[in-house]
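Two proteins follow. First one:
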Amino acid sequence: MNQNRMVVGLAVALVVAFVLATFVYKQFQKASTAKPVDTEHVVVAASAMPLGTRVDASNLKLITWPAGQSVAGMFTSIDQCANRALITPVAANEMILDAKLAPKEAGAGLPAVIPEGMRAMSVAVNDVIGVAGFVTPGTKVDVLVTGKLSGPSRGEEDTITRTILENISVLAAGQKIEQDREGKPQTVPVITLLVSPEDAARLAMASTQGKIQLALRNTVDSKRVEPASVLEANLFSGGAPAAAPKKATVKVAAPPPPSPYTIEVITGNKRENKSFPNQ
């Protein structure tokens, strides 16, 4: 009995092995006869590159890519994108796209990352103005200016602080246009901001005629607040409005009374002048 069971088990094992072998053989046959996938080449970064880097054959390479799976703005030849500067950092093996490159005539470095119609303007800073060194490339700031407010209608000068620019991008800290990967502060004497031509004029006036202060903001907080200006008189008077200067009282002289009428009266051989009020 036991011998019969062993024979049956062996037969079943042989059948299962045969079925599995047949299945594997057919799969290998299919794999060997499968149509190869068509590929093409795409341009990627040969190594990590910071913003402003000019790309060429020394820092680019080609890798294979499935044909028909193109990405908008990709390049299939290094010559197509050579001698253009990056306007965003890229990682090693990251695909180079047209949207990540400045025009050829834009050059490299900081000028390449300034959008058309905008300006890069530098302002002197210290540890206080630069928010202890945390105003670094890629951050956003508001610009405040403090100066003297005076005019013909004011009795005396008053100090005022006003927010003149909001949500301004920081392009560079000193000569660095890349943010520290660990978020470490950078103590520098100059900060470069990205502004419009009109704002550049306002910033120049604020820097020369007043004292500027930078206020660091969250990079995802782009809402304009337009805070009210602060007067020194209001700040140190508990917030009460400053008293308006008293207007000088000018006394106007009364006009002189009209001259009286004078009439000559002749009585016989007597003559006399009589005056009457001129009302």
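Second one, unrelated to the first:
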Amino acid sequence: MIDSVSSPGIDPPSPTLSARLRELAGYLAAPAAGRLTEEQRALSLSIARRLVVDVAARLHPGIDPGGLWSEWVRGGLPCAARLAGICFARAEEHRWREQSALRTSPPPILAETDGAIADPPAVGEPMSDVDRAYLALQIADRRRFDALGNPALAVADLDGEIFRTLLLDIASWRLSALSGDTARAAELGDAVRVATERHADERGIEHAGQAYYEILGSASADAAAAAIARHNWPTLIALAAAAHRRSYGDMAMTLLTAESAALPSLLAPLRLDHAALAPLEASLTMLPARAVADASGDE
């Protein structure tokens, strides 16, 4: 039995979510049928594949990502328990964004309330600090997709321990193909060290969200309300994560698994009124197969 399959900082809020994550970890370790929908399994698995490919590319250009993934998906991912939580969170966030885009009308253009929804500056006009912080957040979010627009996990967003574990698992796979070549094995060890040092210096969407929240100051409530009205969930998640000083993935999973009645207290640090929360509640309610605390039969 897998006791915990979430990444550091993600504390599963319900037996239902814990069951989903245990199932996904089992699926990644040895693909099999389960209670997750086909869409949830496919999205989570594809996100895991893109992550493995991206990390492998950082380790050594000679690694065959197709061969690595094919072997792992047949025999099971070595780090399945660590990847299940972050891949599921990313997949569920993507499903949420997609269903919002498909099932709702475009929100009205709101009156200017903060720098996050300002018109772009005129040519030659300098950007404000708020505009620059918001642009950095948008760029960090865009890095969480591949070149074709499919959801992915940016390497910069990975927890250091998860990144190193995945890196070492890939290095072990590569090492088994070197057939005792000590020189190339030593090079591989150096590559692990360099990749680890590089990753430690990278900043992802969590850092961008924190910077945006801090530069907004008292305007963060208006920015959060505008994000909800526009169904801009990454901005809302980033602001809520910064307000709570939690990781982006942790906050995303908390919002996605929260009951409607819990949202006001959950987002209390952003000082949002009930009217501002209504579109958020409605959007979450429409998400199919969402794991919430009041679900039954998933012990």
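SUMMARY FIELD: The first helix runs from residue 15 to 29. The radius of gyration is 20 Å.
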